[in-house]
Write a structure and sequence with these properties.
Strand content: 35-45%
Largest sheet: 9 strands, parallel
Structural class: mainly beta
Shape: globular
Helix content: under 10%
Number of strands: 36
């Protein structure tokens, strides 16, 4: 798995049929290992730690073979997991809460031990030594996707409020002190929507700061009784274009995952045989355009949660001219579904009633505009719209060119 923590990174190929990136990594058989953290690494105290053990489940057949998977830090057990009945294929993983591991990790040298015990008596372990130093590296690491776009930390800054209520259409929030807020910063605005009587947490971008008043780049979609406003770290204007990304390894990982992202995109990309989700995430102003999706490997289910593509917990996103590959529809055994959601709404529409080939708009007091075309139960088709957000070209930053990779 590859972790990309920077803004302005564009992975660009020469076209779906000319550039193919293949994700084929799997853990070694009958082993346990750390994912994204290696012997001798220097890490921050809040680093996410991921332990993965080989699991005999694969090809949509569950085999209960793991009795226990555990993680120790400096001789103290910080997390363990038992019973490998899951969708995870040959990667059975454990990710302890870093709010707990930070209590055990100490400045300087630390010994991490991962261990697995199988039901037939087999055992395996992996011991590494890392150095903990504040601010030394990213708090995150590659994990649940072939390509994982995510900022390097989750350090949030909270601001005391003067404005207590915002109404639909408002563009300004007054703070007691705007501190070092600046245009382009991402804000999470949390509060209660009185109409729906529920908590909402839309993301907004700062367009300007006038004294201690923040001017938002887009109007508030809902009436909100404010509880908090915080600045959140984000990656901005990163994307993947003009290539095919496929997975040949048989474990429950996604192909693409964007997290805490702003104005990022996937354009002209074919996504083949994802272990879990072809595309996950897409927080703010995300665009998926001119893409093809064919399949998810895992369609059996302890709790489901596989084979979705689109947005979840997203705001002002766009899916347009994206479709399943021609060979995907007849495969009745697959649980291929599309997921489009934003603001407080979460809409999951099965493929037979979802035709994402043209651009339309669904909008209401509780749903920000999502360009797509859908057919409602009465048969009426949502009208087209040309007002969809386009994040535009990438920033002048690192662009990685892949030419003819197979």
């Amino acid at each position: 798995p590859v972790y990309i923590p920077h803004s302005g990174v564009v992975l660009r190929g020469n076209g779906m049929d000319q550039t193919t990136l293949t994700f084929r990594w799997e853990p070694a058989r009958d082993s346990v290992d750390f994912i994204g953290t290696r012997y001798g690494d220097t890490i921050p105290p809040m680093r996410t730690l991921i332990v993965a053990a080989w699991n005999d489940s694969r090809n949509n057949k569950m085999i209960r073979c793991i009795k226990r998977l555990g993680l120790e830090i400096n001789g103290q057990v910080v997390a363990e997991r038992a019973d490998s009945e899951s969708n995870e294929g040959p990667w059975f993983s454990l990710t302890p809460d870093n709010r707990q591991t930070v209590k055990v990790l100490k400045e300087g040298s630390n010994v991490l031990r991962a261990s697995v015990e199988y039901t037939d008596g087999r055992t395996a372990e992996k011991v590494i030594t890392v150095t903990v130093r504040e601010g030394s590296a990213s708090e995150h690491c590659a994990g649940d996707a072939a390509l994982f776009f995510c900022p390097s930390d989750y350090q949030q800054t909270f601001y005391d409020l003067v404005t207590k209520v915002v109404k639909r259409g408002d563009l300004r929030i007054e703070l007691k002190s705007a501190g070092d807020l600046k245009p382009g910063d991402a804000l999470l605005v949390k509060g209660r929507n009185p109409e729906a009587d529920c908590t909402v947490w839309p993301w907004h971008l700062v367009a300007a700061v006038e004294g201690n008043t923040v001017v938002l780049a887009s109007p508030v979609r809902l009436d909100i009784d404010l509880e908090s406003v915080r600045r959140v770290p984000s990656i901005q204007r990163s994307g993947v274009e003009d290539l095919t990304l496929r997975q040949t390894s048989g474990h429950w990982t996604s192909l693409l995952h964007f997290n805490n992202d702003v104005a990022c995109w996937v354009r002209c990309v074919r996504l083949l045989d994802a272990g879990r989700f072809p595309l996950a995430g897409g927080r703010k102003n995300f665009e998926m355009r001119d893409c093809e999706v064919d399949g998810a490997q895992f369609h059996f289910g302890i709790g489901g949660g596989t084979g979705y593509v689109g947005f979840g917990g997203s705001f002002d996103g766009l899916i347009t001219r994206t479709k399943p590959a021609a060979c995907a529809m007849p495969r009745a055994s697959r649980r291929d579904r599309w997921d489009a959601s934003c603001a407080t709404a979460s809409s999951r529409t099965p493929l037979p009633t979802f035709t994402p080939h043209r651009c339309g708009t669904i909008s209401s007091k509780t749903t920000a505009s999502i360009p797509w075309e859908a057919t409602n139960p009465s048969g009426a088709t949502v009208a087209d719209s040309s007002s969809a957000h386009d994040p535009g070209p990438a920033m002048a930053a690192a662009e990685i060119y892949f030419t003819g990779i197979r």
